[in-house]
Design goal:
This protein is an all-beta fold. The protein is built from no helices and 15 strands. The chain has one domain. The protein is rod-shaped, with a radius of gyration of 40 Å. The N terminus is likely disordered.
Length: 211
Amino acid sequence: MYFKKIAMSSIISGSMLLSAFLPSTALADSIQVSGNGALSQNDVSVSSNQTSSTMQSNYTSSTNVVNTNANTGSNQENNNTGGSNSTNTGGIYSAVTLTNTAGNNVIASTPSGPMNNLNTNIGVNGNGFASSNSVGVQMNSSTQQDQLNVTQQYNKVAANLNTGNNTISDNTGGSSWFWNIGNSGSNGTQSGPISSTVMITNTAGNNFLGH
């Protein structure tokens, strides 16, 4: 059994990696244009840029190969003279359980940085006659979050069980018995019960983005 999952989302992640961003910081800018003379020209320009990029990658590869072998068969009662012969053979129960869980990518929250808490106070006053005053404020914010999760899982299980291939031959007089769970016979063979259970659970990695 071969299982492969690739999950890609445009917003980011890494092996159960929790990405933490800088705490929110409030910035206060104060711009004052005042006390300038008559006919003066005053220009103020403020530019603020913020770029945030987060990348999480998670690669999981698991291989499971299980072989089980159990045998209570191939019993023989041969070349006996007189008396009673008996062989007790039980049943066989085989159980295999496999659980594979890949890693997850987790981003707890989107960035909350200075750009989101920028307060700008602008004051233009007390300037001279016919003065020209201008104030320009530009704020740019860019956020990129990427998550990549690749999971490869390979499972192979083989169970070989045998309670048969019992033989009785060349006996003189008396009785020969093979005993099995719930079954018996005289000068004959019976195969015991066989039960095999295989349970495989594969969980691929996931991407989680919180807000």
